[in-house]
Amino acid sequence: xxxxxxxxxxxxxxxxxxxxxxxxxxxxxxxxxxxxxxxxxxxxxxxxxxxxxxxxxxxxxxxxxxxxxxxxxxxxxxxxxxxxxxxxxxxxxxxxxxxxxxxxxxxxxxxxxxxxxxxxxxxxxxxxxxxxxxxxxxxxxxxxxxxxxxxxxxxxxxxxxxxxxxxxxxxxxxxxxxxxxxxxxxxxxxxxxxxxxxxxxxxxxxxxxxxxxxxxxxxxxxxxxxxxxxxxxxxxxxxxxx
Length: 242
Ligand code: GLP
Prior knowledge:
It contains 7 helices and 10 strands. By secondary structure, it is an alpha/beta fold. It has a single domain (about 1-235), classed as Rossmann fold (3-Layer(aba) Sandwich), CATH 3.40.50. The strands form 2 sheets. Strands 1-10-9-6-2-3-5 form a 7-stranded parallel beta sheet, covered by helices on one side. Strands 4-8-7 form a 3-stranded antiparallel beta sheet. The longest helix has 18 residues, at about 10-25. The radius of gyration is 17 Å and the shape is globular. The mean pLDDT is about 95. Bound molecules: 2-amino-2-deoxy-6-O-phosphono-alpha-D-glucopyranose. It holds the Pfam family Glucosamine_iso. One of its GO terms (cellular component) is cytoplasm. Pathway: Amino-sugar metabolism; N-acetylneuraminate degradation; D-fructose 6-phosphate from N-acetylneuraminate: step 5/5. GO terms for molecular function: glucosamine-6-phosphate deaminase activity; identical protein binding. It comes from Gleimia coleocanis DSM 15436.
């Protein structure tokens, strides 16, 4: 893993966007893995700016999202599909229908998960996966204790994650869905490059475990230590326990 401790969130966004720009320069039809949460927002701001400046185009590209809540209303602003549309997809030029996400409202969720996993493979796999990290070390929605090798699946959100995410639901944990569909750690590890970003003190313990801990399902992100091309971009606060 390459670890970079950077001065601020804006620099994290720039460094990650440099990697993405380089990818699309070399491979215009690259497949980008998109993450939700607040951590990647500085990356998305950079990508939008570079796109608007004519330096970066996704017009031959494709994207796959990591995860989605189960049973959230189609028009809910916190539905991850809507978040990705608002924060990045609607501002850049991915072709129509080329930003994909797992379907948390499918009638047969298990079949939808398997089909989603297959669609990533059919697209040739993810070239660069953007990742955030939960304060409990989860990536996507792979919570502590889950399999380190699983594929896209239905998951149960921990109380900690629901508490962390309540800020997006009027601060009310009861409004946060209890289940999710998420790429598994096996699916995520298939991406050719992983770029995890984290800011702030709240992530310091998880970053310590990710960088210095043993690979363990207790801290799901530690599986990244086994990846051949993983980048971890953090600010001073997130690095404060290293
Ligand atoms: C959610 C998402 C994760 C994200 C994490 C951290 O649970 N499913 O993909 O990495 O939250 O979110 P934030 O970046 O807002 O701290």
